[in-house]
Amino acid sequence: MESLEPLFPDASLTAEVGNSVAEVTDAVADMDGSYLSLSDADFRERIHRAYARMSACDLCPRQCGADRLAGKAGICGVGLKPRIFVWNLHHGEEPPVSGTRGSGTVFLSGCNLNCRYCQNYPLSQLNHGTELSIPSLAAALVELQRRGAHNINFVTPSHQVPQLLAATYAARQLGLHIPLVYNTSSFDEASTLVLLDGVVDIYLGDLRYTNDQVALRLSGVNDYVDHAKEALVEMHRQVGDIIVDEQGRYVPRGLIVRYLILPRHTNMARDVFDFVAHNLSPDTYVSIMTQYFPAYKALNPGLGIDRKINEAEFNRVMNAWSRSGLVHGWVQDMDEQGGA
Ligand code: SF4
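# iron/sulfur cluster complex -> structure
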């Protein structure tokens, strides 16, 4: 994601701040992560509770019961140790995440969804990556901070929450202080997200579908919609909306909802935006993504997603957005290309 045009209704780069109007830039206020305020005892207790759930794993809605403490991998493909594909500075996320210096992005291996069109399928579905120790992952997080990252951005983290908590705790002891971003498909258990309350500052959560039959056909799960909605409500409860400070800088705390436009499936866009406006907040920042291209199993014409989106589909989604009452967000250029 490199090109993000603002979605303000008047297309002007301004935002109301208190009684004044500030010019909004891509700058992000430098703030410490909320996890700095957690006591050692509280942090350790959360790590303990998270790992305890891995003995018969119920961390995500799959509830597959794998004994990951014994090293067995669940449906997500990951066992006890953190498994990472790559970590680096990334400049193509939404402005409050990438800012001016980049986001410290950690691409995790494995996934609890099985999206036929996954644009990162080598790591998510084929499980490419390396097992790291907790100290090694902690050192990587600190190195990303040293390189100037605004934040640590865990991509596809739902199945590795215990490991990420443990690595963040260890990295905090090494001086990590920048905020955490939880960058998720939203196929999360709300009870797992509760463990991240006061740890994560920015949630970057998808709402991919509002129709479970489509979710089953394209992502291999039959209960995406309710779980994702419940997860997004919990994310919003924890961090609220993104806001802009008096200097026009994004404050790095809040929920951003992503919507990836899929070809021939734009009839869900209205329900996505209506849910966000009415069940989260009309001030939610929405990121509309046009980068879809057929990858992995999506070249199979039977799935109906074997091409990029067209202009008519893009316009349909933008019309749905403009009628939704939402006023904040970004949209990619039509010619975007995605992938890790
Ligand atoms: S996180 Fe992985 S092992 Fe745990 S329930 Fe989900 S798919 Fe199964």
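# post-check
The CA atoms of residues 27 and 300 lie 42 Å apart.
The chain has one domain: 4-332.
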